[in-house]
UniProtKB/TrEMBL annotation:
CDD domains per record: AHL_lactonase_MBL-fold
Domain Metallo-beta-lactamase: 54-259
InterPro entries named among the record's database cross-references: MBL_superfamily_lactonases (IPR051013), Metallo-B-lactamas (IPR001279), RibonucZ/Hydroxyglut_hydro (IPR036866)
Keywords recorded for this protein, A-Z: Hydrolase, Metal-binding, Zinc
Record carries keyword Transferase: no
Name of the featured protein: Beta-lactamase-like protein
Protein origin, superkingdom: Bacteria
Pfam families recorded: Lactamase_B
Keyword RNA-binding (UniProt): no
Entry's transmembrane regions: none
Record family assignment: Belongs to the metallo-beta-lactamase superfamily.
GO terms of molecular function: hydrolase activity; metal ion binding
Amino acid sequence: MTNELTEGDAQGVAKRTPTGTVDRMTVLNGGEAHVSDISQWSPGVNVGQPAVFSNNAYLIQHGADLMLWDTGLDDSMIDIPGGRVMAHDVRGIVKKTLASQLEEMGISPEQVTHIAFSHAHFDHVGNSRYFSGATWHVQRFEYDAMFGTNTTQLGFLPELYETMRNNPVNMLGGHHDVFGDGAVVVHATPGHTPGHQSLLVRLPDRGPVVLSGDVAHFHQNFCCRRVPLFNFDKPRSVDSMNYVDALVAREQAELWINHDKAQSETIPHAPQWIK
């Protein structure tokens, strides 16, 4: 098994994939990340400048199934005034819990049948414990890293996702068509972490969207192929940006960069559904 990839892979997967659509998708607020020096994410650029990152989760309806992509920061942080400093000198702030947003939409965590994370950092797996019955789609490289001996070096906090050991697991070794109709396709995009992945979602009206996770944290980094200081593998990080670029072009898709606050503010959020 390998997690090597090329731009040709993106074009090949797209050509082979059927083009079904989901019913709808909504964007949930997973908190904010406040950083004091954005140059950690873009070495040598904007040194010493603070920034605020958006942090979203995405709920996708496909027939009778609900799939959640990422779960945001831990809901319990709403009780901490001013938030809490996590890994990489990031201060996480929660102003509205994931649980309350789901409740507002009349959805219980037990209704979520599928779950996947772009990767296992604290701002993406913070509420994983709510979804113990969902089938978990995860790259083998990420799973092994999550439950391995180097979690601290990777910036992982196992206490946030320990309960996922008991979930039904669909272990992946690359790309995966979740429902078999091309409506939701996981794409392996390693580099930020060992088994980072991105998600292609085909919406019936808006069209295809690529949820790129932390392949890049904002559009300028994506366009300039800038790699954060703490990424697991710099060359593969660049490969994954190239791969996602080719996938977006081939699918004529929108690219949604999770932590790009300026872009996030232009996208409708829950309780509004996007079709």
